Amino acid sequence: MLKAIDIMTPDPVTLSPDTDILTAAKLLLDRKINGAPVVDKKGMLVGVLTQSDLVAQQKQVTMPSIFAMLDGFIALSSREDFEREIHKIAATTVTEAMTQHPKAVTPQTPIDEIATVMVNEKLYTLPVVDSGKLVGVVGKEDILRTLLEHHHK
Prior knowledge:
With about 150 residues, this protein is an alpha+beta fold.
């Protein structure tokens, strides 16, 4: 069975945590990619920035819901979620807008497992890491291309 190492794109487009948001957005649009891994100076995966993360900056703030009971207030949503949302909307650098601790696969992850993660978690590009270091990415196009190649054999 094919594994991530067989179908991944090695040396993918990456972003640095301190890249400004406008530069990152331009890179994603210019390269026509949905997202890019964010790596530190040592090549270690620290996050992923997607077009969805950038679009989230334009959304309206969801005020925390509260419930009044016996002259007291009970929060129906966490303050941490609210603060995280505000922080993401106000982001000026990749590190502030990216998804931290992203789902990743290893070079030995079988293609069926990769497809399952993509479908179940609605992820279209997965970083491939070896001991925490980014070695490639697998996108839905890589899986489709592989299916077509094997179908024509």
